[in-house]
Amino acid sequence: METYRLRLKEDEGADPIDQGADALSLEDPRHLAFDSFESRGLPEAAVRLLEATVPSIADAGPHDPMNRLLVPHMLVLLQRVSDPPTVATALVTAIRLCTALHRTGDYLSAWETAQTAADLGEKRLGVEHRLVLAARSRAGRALFRLGRYNEAELLLSRIREAQERLFGADDPDTLDTCHGLQLVLGNLGKRDEAISLLRTTVAGRRRALGSDHPLTLRSRSSLLVLLSASEVRAEEDGALLSLPSECIRHLGLDHTVTLGACHNHAWALYGLGQFDEADQEMRLVVEAYQRRFGPDHPNLLSAQQLFSRILAARGDVTAGIDVMRDVVTKRERSLGVDHPFTAASRQLLDAFRSGRYHPIEA
């Protein structure tokens, strides 16, 4: 995976080192428009143009090379603008761009962009400015997806402490960081800490955003993965197992949060030993992810891995091996052979092949 990497120089702007093979043509009119504004010394106008170009609400989706093409312009502008209101506008836009990169699976670009944007914003706005902290939180989320769990835990814990002290425990930015941190803790084996933090996040989002807000529903969905079978049955007096229906009612069947809730619900069904029901749900999720995100998106690969477990649990180990072989190949290509997700996929494939796989214990 190639990304834009910028060597920022205090007085000379940015020197693009590596554009990447899939970037858009430099003749793209939007690219030329940014160059025109920059060369004429009108960074404020370029900030407004970028603000209108970057998705206002980034959703999960297939790779979009335009996002990567915008990165050097965004960072050059953050370096050049000096008045705090314009810097703040540029940093908000940079955070949206990082989110778009992240949710389309370009985690390395998301991390590099968030880290550099935060460094540049800090020079103008200060180390504890809300937007600087939000950009660093995005960097922490990307570090997690890159498999750098320890670094992600340290960064997100530090940002959470600062946000909670400055803005309060129920502030939306604080809760965003909490949701990201619980993912890291869960993958580091700190299950009790992760569950406690996730329940705190759910309660805070209910108070701050409402019970039917997409972010509240998303955090509740994560409980379906972290909790054991007995805990899932008891959570919310059993109401958690009806979460996909709630999401459909509030958000619609094809909403990304709804699909994620169905995905996680299928995991809970698998853990409960309800393999036929899990199979039906996962087939729908896999089809929707393929249609929405494309064949290589991280969400699809995660869904296919669970689907392979379900296939094996229902007795079709050969089909499970076929699915996992594809997942391992794609994760090695996109994440690298040493990434924890890739390693877990290889271990599952080896368990299928060796006959060591046991569904409920997996």
Note down, in words, how this protein is organized:
The protein has 362 residues and is mainly alpha-helical. It is built from 17 helices and 2 strands. The protein is globular and about 65 Å long. Helix 1 packs antiparallel against helix 2. The protein is 72% helix and 2% strand. Among the domains are: 129 residues, no CATH class; 113 residues, Serine Threonine Protein Phosphatase 5, Tetratricopeptide repeat (Alpha Horseshoe), CATH 1.25.40. The two termini are 31 Å apart. A hairpin with a 3-residue loop joins strand 1 and strand 2. The chain has a two-stranded antiparallel ribbon with strand order 1-2.
Oligomer kind: single chain
How would you classify the helix and strand content by structural class? Answer: mainly alpha
The span between the termini is 31 Å
**How many strands in all?**
2
In the sheet with the most strands, the strands line up as: 1-2
From the alpha carbons, calculate the radius of gyration and give it in angstroms. 21 Å
Largest sheet: 2 strands, antiparallel
Give unreliable regions as ranges: 1-34
**Tally of helical runs:** 17
Percentage of β-strand residues: under 5%
Helical proportion?
Answer: over 70%
Mean of pLDDT: 89
Secondary-structure element pattern, one letter each: EEHHHHHHHHHHHHHHHHH
* Mass-distribution shape: globular
